Amino acid sequence: MSLIDRIKELADSKKVTFAEIERNTGISNGQIRRWDSSSPKIENVQKVADYFGVSTDYLIGRTNIRTIDTEEPLSSQVMFRMNTDGLSEEEVDELKDEVNRFLRFREAEIKRERELKQDDKA
Known about the structure:
Radius of gyration: 20 Å
Shape: elongated
Low-confidence stretches: none
Largest sheet: none
Structural class: mainly alpha
């Protein structure tokens, strides 16, 4: 699904037109329709994403997940950014567990390094 298709789908669900989106986001009149034949500025893609409350990755078709849940653990956010096509659900879960273990390890290392620096200053 193209960028325009995603925006059209979102606009239809909110019952708004491209012109309304452009007015409400400060994008030039008729600009969104031109995105099929020309590359949009990332700032404008971000404005549209913010308007609909979705991620830019969703708009450009990199994911079918509309938003990144900031309440979600960091490991799940990392997995969101990772291409897991071709992996079974069990393999994805194993990968999440491994990412969690690594993040806990790095967190402990960072805290240990911070403590060593503070001891050196004392």
